[in-house]
Amino acid sequence: MFKFLQNLAPKDENQLDKSVPKKKISKKRQAYVPVYLDLPEMSLVQPSGDMSAKIREELREPDADTIAKDIVIIREWLDKQPHLPKDMDDQRLTTFLRGCKFSLEKVKQKLDMYYTMRNAIPEFFTNRDISRPELAEIMDIADMPPLPGLTPGGCRVVCLRAVDRDNMPNNVADGMKLALMIGDIRLYEEKTGVAGDVYVLDASVATPTHFAKFTPTLVKKFLVCVQEAYPVRLKEVHVINVSPLVDTIVNFVKPFLKEKIRERIHIHSNLDDLYKFVPKEMLPSEYGGNAGTIKDLNEQWRNKIRDYTQWFKDQEASKANESLRPGGARAETDLFGVDGSFRQLSID
């Protein structure tokens, strides 16, 4: 099956299938240019050419020698942290640097939280095996694939939807676990670096019964983890196929989000409105695009996660050792606040 790519006249000829004729692209045109190639299953298109240059400028990315020196500095810092693992490879460290716009202090904070979360939220970071029944169930009843292509601005788009209003996961924390597993894979596979993430949330089958399972404590833990422990640059959140329930849910989640992220949430009454932000061509066929069906994309990600099974098993022990933390262990209330301060979700 042909997978969808998006790039602007890539300069790295090695990333292209030589058997596919190259399409000539006008130098004057810098608009969105979809390209179709027969790729290995679920390859993530990486920025190249002018797009890559613009992203590097936005991220304040220095030359390769400076990046290598920054990695050495981070490794030297990690060596002095008795409570933190020393297993972070250069590619993931580079992704952290990009996500923090090459601020070494921010990278240190993110890395500390990255390993700290693995102790603080075991429900997200243990038993991360896609063959386990509870995770296989999530993949069957929810689609959450990052799309292979990129927006004209160089952002990765992630689609998320429940498949059936009558199918409920036994434990929604398993869905959050899967989302973080995909995030860990992307730490390694976003080789060149993207401008940020765009989320498209399809609320077509959302019901009060679905959302009642999302307790304030669980949502708070997940969003703290995503915002503080991962080098995510969230550019936009788009909610489609909305109902009156969506306003209630958005208002419930907003207090747990940073202000700048709250301002990036867009509610759309129709797909044409979404296309103003995300090109129609790069979306799954269910949304009028050419990227294949969302179910096929989700299955490709299931296979990719399966390929990382041993890595996830090895990572079980990769977490902060709070007994060795200088100054003493971090309390859960320091990380997530006091549970009693959360207001309860009320859905009519």
Structural write-up:
The chain is an alpha/beta fold and 348 residues long. Helix content is 42%, strand content 11%. Strands 3, 4, 5, 6, 7 and 8 form a six-stranded mixed sheet that branches. α2 (64-79) packs across α3 (90-99) and α3 (90-99) crosses α4 (104-120). The longest helix is centred in the middle third of the chain and has 18 residues, at 172-189.
Supply the number of helical segments.
15
Secondary-structure class: alpha/beta
Q: How many whole angstroms does the radius of gyration measure?
A: 20 Å
Mean pLDDT over the residues: 85
Q: Determine the fraction of residues in helical runs and give it as a percent range.
A: 40-55%
Coarse shape: globular
Secondary-structure element string: EEHHHHHHEEEHEHHEHHEHHHH
Distance between the termini: 44 Å
Spans where pLDDT lies below 50 across 5 or more residues: 1-40, 340-348
Largest sheet: 6 strands, mixed
| Percent strand | 5-15%
The total of beta strands comes to 8
